[in-house]
Amino acid sequence: MASLQTLTKSFSGWVFFCCCCCLPLLLTSPLHPKGPGLASTTHHVCKLRKINFQQPYIRNRTYTLAKMARASDQDTDNRLIGQQLYVNVRENNRCYMMKRIAEIVVNDVLLTEAKDQYPYAEEVAQFLASLTSELSRCKFSGHKEHIEKNLEEMKSKMKELGENGKTKAIGELDLLFDYLENACTDAPKKGANKKKN
Q1: Closest CA relative to residue 20, chosen from 7, 9, 2
Q2: Relative to the CA of 57, which of 24, 80, 126, 160 has its CA 20 to 30 Å away?
Q3: Torsion angle defined by CA atoms of residues 69, 70, 71 and 72, in that order, rounded to the nearest 10 degrees
Q4: How far is CA 82 from CA 94, 102, 132, in A?
Q5: How far apart are CA 145 and CA 90, in angstroms?
Q6: Which of 188, 184, 192 is nearest to 44 (CA)?
Q7: CA dihedral sign of residues 96, 182, 48, 120
Q8: Residue 64 near residue 112, CB atoms below 8 Å
Q9: CB-based contact 73:168 (threshold 8 Å)
């Protein structure tokens, strides 16, 4: 004990004591994650990275595919993707809603015979599938009935339109792209700064 007191009286003794005793304790003690860094990894499961939507190649493929399908869409009265999807849906559930719509468009439209009829359909389907995969842990919060009702209305309208329903869904891929970006990233909302005439 006396030798420890003598050792700690000098500066070099303190350095030795800290390096040999305190540092190993600090390095082996469990640290509890706190702070803003944790929020970005666990809280935002309904968010996509902006970079997903800033790739000119896939944006051009998506918009080109939509334009090609719109040329053969005879129905100008109906719209599948639009603000009607958000009726009674809270803003924090919009990304979940768009994830579900993307899943429907990929599985029920793009990966059917459309992949043989339209160039880029498979590429766009893979892109959208990768986004929905990134959002796999994104769940709704609150009541789900409005979300399900709006999804059912979209699906029944698409079914009612028959083959033209699939054509319409492909023709609105550019809208789906934009709605996904707006709902699932922190990107500035399109048209938010424009003046209305």
Answers
A1: 7
A2: 80
A3: 70
A4: 12, 13, 19
A5: 12
A6: 184
A7: positive
A8: no
A9: yes
